Amino acid sequence: MTQEFEFDDEIVELRSMVREFCAEFSPEALVREHMESELGYDPALWRRLGTDIGVLGLAVPEAYDGDGVGLVAQAVVVDELGAALVCGPVLGTLALAMPTLVALADEDAKRELLPSLCSGEHVATLVAPLATGVLDERAVTIEATENDGWRLTGEVAQVPDGAAADTLLVLARTSDGLALFAVAGDADGLTRTALTTLDLTRRQAAVSFAATPAQLLASGTEAVGAVERAALVASVLLAVESVGGAQRMLDVTVAHVSTRKQFGQPVGAFQAVKHRCANLLIAVETARSAAYHGVWALQDGTDDPQLAAGLAKAAASESYQAVSAGAIQLHGGLGFTWEGSPHLYFKRASTNGLTLGTATQHLDRVAALTLDAVSA
Amino acid sequence: MTPSPTTTPDAELVEATARRVVAEHPPTSTPLPELMGAWYDAGLTWVHFPVGLGGLEASRALQPLANRVMREAGGPEPRTVNTIGYGIVAGTIRRYADREFAARRLRPLATGEEKWCQLFSEPGAGSDLAGLATRAVRDGDGWRVNGQKVWNSLAHLSRWAILLARTDPDVPKHKGLTYFVVDMQSPGITVRPLRQITGRAAFNEVFLDDVFIPDSQRFGEVGEGWIVANSTLGDERTSLGDRVAARGSGVIADALALWAAHPERHDPVLRDRLVRLWVRAETQRLTGDRARVAASKGVAGAESAIIKLLNSELAQAVYEFCLELLGPEGTLIDTYSLDAPDDESGPTAIQRKYLRSRATTLEGGTSEIMRNVIGERFLKLPQELRADKGIAWKDIPR
């Protein structure tokens, strides 16, 4: 086992393989095509990620057709997908649904659902109140009743990858407490309304269930525990995704200010610009440390998972927002155009900063775990 | 016991050797020079140095292992024995001194019996160090040196100094410098304490009046002083990442302790400020750890320059927070006496650290210079136009 922050040769190769794949098969021109398409991504491209290069099931045990390599490897993939802004159900499927399923005890359900997610043939999402970054049990609004099988009723305003999902994992309230269900994308009484998202590369849908048939996967603490685990995994994966996007924006910005000339010299030679770039690098590097620490902590259990995930998510969100905003500024007028790259990343950064908890919500929890604990 | 020269010392050998030394010379009861002498003789001071010069010809990555054994046995962090000696001088001696000089000077450097200081900065050459004006002129088999140096920590306690002086004013500034080592007991050297913002004098001014330096104490070629100096600045940077700090250690520990001690002063705004400081400290600590791991795999990045910059700015922010937490008490300090004991404990230590922290963004490269370095060296941004480029030093406006 490698120590924290030690990226072994296999991981380094994995990173460059995914980077090359993205450059070839998801260049920015295609990203723009996908983001303006109805579905919001190219299912064939997603399948290729799962099947041709096999990078969607790295944190899934081999028993369910994953690779069982670990979360660090999966994070490096998400980092690169984020750098290229690849359209696809990274959040719903990779970050939320797969870790939820992996955490379940139900072997049959795992064998049924995970292989096709690993191969990229199917996509899934998780419907649970995670807006603050942790599960808010009181905010579960879907009701489950048992009457000729389980049926779900209720509405959820915003579900990541909700329209594309072949399977929706739904946390619902039963008469005995919370339980986790699987709902097929074509189930009766399931209505999905695609929403126009600030970040067009990351889709959401409003979802309503009207006596929709559902399969029970887990109940009580097992269901809650699986969703809580998924929230942690998704937080650190969004954190590394943010680092990937921020690094790309930094690279693009440095290239721009190194060639763009005003007053007879590249603008990057001016200290006002150079120092701002240095600050962006610092924001990327410190966020990278926090994000990968979170990944390693969840993979190896080397730190308090709540603290490590909260730190990762808060640091990476703020970094990505600062770096992408800085990229717009340093690109000058070009940074404000639709044609320029920075707005795509700025929108992803803004969205990541509001998904699975804001930086301040995570900071508040970090404070509770560090400062309040000390004072108590 | 020296290892057979045919085997490459590995981690086990380094650790076993270190354990033997601390067993034979218990750090808690052995006089420091004796302990560090045994450490040097066993090749543990700089494990990557040659055998007989304080090393084992081992991989530099094994140094933290040796230092950990020393630490766990209650011994000092070795570099604290002679900060400049370890951080800057030793590597220069190894690279540029002849074997005889190295053999004579490295052991007392390692034991702290001969402290070293650095005579680089001048009143007119701070950030623009290469513009320095101290002149060294040929005189028989040596050099006569005249000039004024400043910000020399430990100069009043040092036996030796490294010196950068101008030997040719007719060429561009970087090309006319030469690197020397100077015996601080040489006639013509005057060391004066320099009183600073805290009231104390941790630094000195050093005046050089017709100081004679034998040519044998020149390191590198005449005119190549800048290259020699830069090779050692690199050493100083890479020496940063030898140890993983504990969470909550360093300057943030002062803020956390003060926060815990003053629950009556808690409010949500201060709590918000403190958790942001904590996050800064923690991400910086993790970045240091990441740099350490990368360095051990031979992948050097921008991390050490970043860490220097971040730590210095964090220190200021932490003590600004601390002072605000103290409230009216923060307006008091025990003494500004020049003779006050130079320790960082006591009832008004926070106030003193608050004042001291203003230097962190100045010393070892100002934050502005560090951002230039990060921008130009690591992001490869174009250099700013320099008015003195290609001009003979004597013709630069000053």
TrEMBL record, chain A:
<dbReference type="Pfam" id="PF02771">
    <property type="entry name" value="Acyl-CoA_dh_N"/>
</dbReference>
<dbReference type="InterPro" id="IPR046373">
    <property type="entry name" value="Acyl-CoA_Oxase/DH_mid-dom_sf"/>
</dbReference>
<keyword id="KW-0274">FAD</keyword>
<dbReference type="InterPro" id="IPR036250">
    <property type="entry name" value="AcylCo_DH-like_C"/>
</dbReference>
<feature type="domain" description="Acyl-CoA dehydrogenase/oxidase N-terminal">
    <location>
        <begin position="9"/>
        <end position="121"/>
    </location>
</feature>
<keyword id="KW-0285">Flavoprotein</keyword>
<dbReference type="GO" id="GO:0003995">
    <property type="term" value="F:acyl-CoA dehydrogenase activity"/>
</dbReference>
<keyword id="KW-0560">Oxidoreductase</keyword>
<comment type="similarity">
    <text>Belongs to the acyl-CoA dehydrogenase family.</text>
</comment>
<protein>
    <submittedName>
        <fullName>Acyl-CoA dehydrogenase</fullName>
    </submittedName>
</protein>
<dbReference type="InterPro" id="IPR037069">
    <property type="entry name" value="AcylCoA_DH/ox_N_sf"/>
</dbReference>
<dbReference type="InterPro" id="IPR009075">
    <property type="entry name" value="AcylCo_DH/oxidase_C"/>
</dbReference>
<feature type="domain" description="Acyl-CoA dehydrogenase/oxidase C-terminal">
    <location>
        <begin position="236"/>
        <end position="368"/>
    </location>
</feature>
<dbReference type="Pfam" id="PF00441">
    <property type="entry name" value="Acyl-CoA_dh_1"/>
</dbReference>
<dbReference type="InterPro" id="IPR009100">
    <property type="entry name" value="AcylCoA_DH/oxidase_NM_dom_sf"/>
</dbReference>
<dbReference type="GO" id="GO:0050660">
    <property type="term" value="F:flavin adenine dinucleotide binding"/>
</dbReference>
<dbReference type="InterPro" id="IPR013786">
    <property type="entry name" value="AcylCoA_DH/ox_N"/>
</dbReference>
From TrEMBL, chain B:
<dbReference type="Pfam" id="PF00441">
    <property type="entry name" value="Acyl-CoA_dh_1"/>
</dbReference>
<keyword id="KW-0274">FAD</keyword>
<dbReference type="Pfam" id="PF02770">
    <property type="entry name" value="Acyl-CoA_dh_M"/>
</dbReference>
<dbReference type="InterPro" id="IPR036250">
    <property type="entry name" value="AcylCo_DH-like_C"/>
</dbReference>
<feature type="domain" description="Acyl-CoA dehydrogenase/oxidase C-terminal">
    <location>
        <begin position="223"/>
        <end position="378"/>
    </location>
</feature>
<dbReference type="InterPro" id="IPR046373">
    <property type="entry name" value="Acyl-CoA_Oxase/DH_mid-dom_sf"/>
</dbReference>
<feature type="domain" description="Acyl-CoA oxidase/dehydrogenase middle">
    <location>
        <begin position="117"/>
        <end position="211"/>
    </location>
</feature>
<keyword id="KW-0285">Flavoprotein</keyword>
<dbReference type="InterPro" id="IPR006091">
    <property type="entry name" value="Acyl-CoA_Oxase/DH_mid-dom"/>
</dbReference>
<dbReference type="InterPro" id="IPR052161">
    <property type="entry name" value="Mycobact_Acyl-CoA_DH"/>
</dbReference>
<protein>
    <submittedName>
        <fullName>Acyl-CoA dehydrogenase</fullName>
    </submittedName>
</protein>
<dbReference type="GO" id="GO:0005886">
    <property type="term" value="C:plasma membrane"/>
</dbReference>
<dbReference type="InterPro" id="IPR037069">
    <property type="entry name" value="AcylCoA_DH/ox_N_sf"/>
</dbReference>
<dbReference type="InterPro" id="IPR009100">
    <property type="entry name" value="AcylCoA_DH/oxidase_NM_dom_sf"/>
</dbReference>
<keyword id="KW-0560">Oxidoreductase</keyword>
<dbReference type="GO" id="GO:0016627">
    <property type="term" value="F:oxidoreductase activity, acting on the CH-CH group of donors"/>
</dbReference>
<dbReference type="InterPro" id="IPR009075">
    <property type="entry name" value="AcylCo_DH/oxidase_C"/>
</dbReference>
<dbReference type="GO" id="GO:0050660">
    <property type="term" value="F:flavin adenine dinucleotide binding"/>
</dbReference>
<comment type="similarity">
    <text>Belongs to the acyl-CoA dehydrogenase family.</text>
</comment>
